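Q: What residues go here?
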């Protein structure tokens, strides 16, 4: 089976908005002072969503790379306690890590395209195709929340 067309579609799903705004577009131009705000009755800030996206994507990448990965404890270690990043550098690091891990996952797709649908030898039947969809779905869901929060904060 030639899986390259499927790999190309998964790559587009991970990197382009298609039917929705990308993660990168959702945070572009976000005022620094709004990163840690929690709009009325919202349980988290945009910073907490960004960090949650970073942690979850990293976890999925590392899980997909092999059986030696130990996932963070759910849910405590998937969400930062602090409402705001500790510094501008922390914000930038999180954004850079999201991009780097996304690119690493895309490289993994290319490297293992012959095993795209083959269940991992570990886990509960997961495969690389499922993990790609999981990253895209999870990031898209929280990107929508970021946009909603920006609208509530008046910056969208």
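A:
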């Amino acid at each position: 089976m030639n899986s390259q067309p499927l790999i190309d579609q998964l790559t587009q799903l991970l990197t382009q908005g298609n039917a929705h705004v990308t993660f990168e577009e959702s945070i572009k131009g976000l005022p620094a002072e709004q990163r840690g705000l929690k709009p009325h009755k919202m349980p988290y800030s945009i910073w907490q969503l960004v960090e949650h996206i970073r942690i979850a994507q990293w976890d999925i990448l590392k899980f997909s790379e092999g059986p030696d990965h130990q996932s963070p404890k759910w849910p405590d270690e998937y969400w930062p306690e602090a409402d705001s990043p500790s510094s501008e550098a922390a914000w930038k690091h999180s954004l850079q890590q999201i991009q780097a891990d996304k690119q690493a996952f895309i490289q993994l797709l290319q490297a293992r395209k012959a095993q795209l649908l083959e269940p991992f030898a570990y886990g509960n039947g997961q495969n690389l195709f499922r993990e790609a969809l999981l990253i895209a779905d999870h990031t898209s869901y929280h990107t929508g929340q970021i946009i909603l929060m920006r609208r509530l904060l008046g910056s969208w």
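A: Context that may help when evaluating the design: The chain has five helices and no strands. The helical segments are 4-15, 23-27, 46-65, 88-111, 128-153.
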